């Protein structure tokens, strides 16, 4: 049985006005965004917020853009955007571990899209495990809703990829 949540299929708001890249990077199918001269981010230095205060997540453009990318299937690009926030938050901090978990769930989506189901399930589980210490909501994400959606999608009981609706911004 495949479950769908009508909230998950409703149009999501954009959290930034930044344009999306011209294509979604899929290894082996599109040019590598950074290494290939035809890549959409070739010769562009990565953005790095100087710091990330979890109380100020609503005003962190890089975090919000990472969520926009995630929600629209730009999973590799979401990983890159969120990695900068992860570093700024402190990789081993509680917030850093949460963001690392989001990154792993984005990678899991990309792996599932590529047909690597076992790797995708493992990455999704590892991502959710990184979030176990967090209280909901965390950085605007209702964790029970997110965990349930990730679990259902990667177990095959949900057809559509996970999308994140940030609390307090809709």
Question: What order do the helices and strands come in, and which of them pair?
Answer:
Layout: H1 6-9, H2 61-71, H3 75-89, H4 94-114, H5 117-130, H6 143-154
3D architecture notes:
The protein has a domain at 57-170: Orthogonal Bundle (Hyaluronidase domain-like), CATH 1.10.3450.10. The protein has 6 helices and no strands. The protein has helices spanning 6-9, 61-71, 75-89, 94-114, 117-130, 143-154. Helix 5 (117-130) runs antiparallel to helix 6. The longest helix has 21 residues, at 94-114. The radius of gyration is 15 Å and the shape is globular. Mean pLDDT is 91; it is low at 1-7.
Kindly summarize this structure in a few lines.
This protein is mostly helical and 170 residues long. It has a domain of 114 residues: Hyaluronidase domain-like (Orthogonal Bundle), CATH 1.10.3450.10.
What's the gyration radius in Å?
15 Å
- The CATH level-2 architecture of the domain at 57-170 is identified as Orthogonal Bundle
Unreliable parts: 1-7
What's the CATH H-level homologous superfamily of the domain at 57-170?
A: TTHA0068-like
CATH class of the domain at 57-170: Mainly Alpha
Helix-residue proportion: 40-55%
Feature tags:
170 residues; mainly alpha; Hyaluronidase domain-like; 6 helices; disordered N terminus
């Amino acid at each position: 049985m495949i479950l769908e949540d009508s909230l998950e299929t409703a149009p999501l708001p954009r959290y930034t006005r930044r344009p999306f890249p011209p294509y979604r990077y899929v290894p082996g199918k599109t040019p590598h965004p950074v290494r290939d001269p035809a890549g959409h981010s070739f010769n562009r230095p990565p953005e790095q917020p100087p710091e990330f205060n979890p109380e100020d997540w609503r005003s962190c453009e890089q975090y919000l853009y990472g969520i926009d990318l995630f929600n629209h299937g730009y999973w590799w690009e979401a990983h890159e955007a969120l990695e900068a926030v992860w570093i700024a938050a402190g990789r081993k901090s509680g917030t850093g571990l949460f963001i690392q978990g989001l990154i792993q769930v984005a990678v899991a989506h990309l792996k599932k899209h590529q047909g690597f189901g076992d790797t995708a399930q493992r990455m999704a589980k590892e991502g959710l495990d990184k979030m176990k210490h967090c209280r909901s909501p965390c950085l605007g994400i209702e964790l029970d809703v997110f965990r349930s959606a990730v679990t259902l999608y990667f177990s095959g009981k949900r057809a559509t990829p996970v999308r994140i609706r940030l609390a307090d911004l809709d």
